[in-house]
Amino acid sequence: MHYDVVIAGGGFAGAYCAQTLGKLLGPGAEKRVALVAQRNVLVFQPMLAEVAGASLGPAAVVHPLRLMCRQVDVLQGSIHKIDWAARSISLDGGRFTRNHALTFDHLVLALGSVSDFSRVPGLTDHGRPMKSVADAIRLRATLINRLEEANLVGDPAQRDRLLTFVVVGGGYTGVETAGQVFDLLCGSMKFYANLRGLRPRVVLVHSHASLLAEIGPELGDHALGVLRRRGIEVRLNTRVAEVTASRVGFTSGDGLDAHTVISTIGNAPHPVVLDLCRQLGLETERGRVPTDDTMRVRGQTHLWSAGDCAAVPWNDRGTIKTSPPTAQIAQRQGRQLGQNLARTLAGEPLRPFRYRYLGQLATIGEHEAVAEVMGFRFSGFFAWWMWRSIYLAKLPGALRKLRVMIDWTFDLVFPRDLSLVLPPPEDVLRSIHLGRDEVLFERGVPSRAYFYVRKGEIRLDEPGQPVRLLGPGSVIDQAHVDEQGDWTVGATATDGADVIVLRGAAFELLRKDVRLVPDTGPIP
Predict the structure, then answer these.
(1) pTM (2 d.p.)
(2) CA distances from residue 406 to 113, 161, 240, 349 in whole angstroms, order as listed
(3) Average pLDDT over residues 205-225
(4) Is 3.50.50.100 the CATH number for 123-265+360-413?
């Protein structure tokens, strides 16, 4: 499949770029423009904390990309690799559509960032991220489960650990998450017979001297005062050193006993973006792709970038800055880039990115917010009302706006929903049956699981090497995976086989740290 333009990333920058470009190109644009997104929805990130706090349902903060970008071809899949020399993308669409190839003339990088908690020991294992709708749903389920467990136990020390919640990071997401978590817990504990009269302990940990640095120290200090007045503990100039299942340790040497840690820090450059920069010899700016003011990547004619992964120059009232990684900036960049791509395809001159800074808003729970709009600062109930009004207007889709209005109205009158609807976790081990000559995996595709042969026989094929037959008890692991994580062999069942598949978090751990028993024979 070949396209004039492939837009990689379905966040604010990618979605609004695709929407704008599709409209400008008109009929037939779906044959010329493709939007590649890991999920087929645009997630309205500013409202994720309200999903975690059960004041909004998850469907209220997502909008289908196929409805939003009707004029372009929307392709759901994870990008495995970009080969710039071949102008191709290797796309993983799912279990039955691995290693799908797309080619392009122009490429837009709008992949944003990824979560990386590896710098703090234990944070990857025990920290709850707040990056996606799934993260918010899991966090909501975790909060309710902690209340259920605390209501069950009689040991005061154990109950205190269950009712202590640590939020790491004092930016927008951290402050808003802490407020929503506190609201959900305080409003729900009265329904638990053994928890009435108790209060949850929510601790916000921030490594800097003030909260919400993007808004400024005045409103940051106001947010700090409101949080503390409500009963939320805030620890400034504090860094997390280690996280275990029952304790959070700080670099100062002290710590907190807690079973629940929520991390809103740890954003890292997308590995696909970094790999493409290495191919081109580009030096990133703190992991972001350097562009000119038209969002064309420096030194390139057919490569563009916008959003959180792009370092786009921004003339902010006479001062040249690098655009901050915020949703409002990404949305404006996406629209401007869509217009520039249309001009490029038509042979017209490009226009630089221009955006007038309007301000920032952050909600801190219990009908409180802080806002800086066009140089004016607001706080309290009026700022909270302004926050809801502005974000409701920015939410894409009339149906979503109506759904959010209904949810917010119910939230003012009725208690928050305490039902648990999260499905049980997927099994780490899964058994599959292969028929005669059925392919287990092909050579060159990414490795996403390891395999243990229970019954039958698996044939391994590698160019230039004799065919190998693996019987019951054999393991197929990273001994047959190259540095890029791709299989160096192909695997096929001979007369049929039963295989145990190891995948998920356990697979990722083994792939990074452990060498399984070689597949030279049965496990002793």
Answers:
(1) 0.84
(2) 32, 35, 39, 46
(3) 85
(4) yes
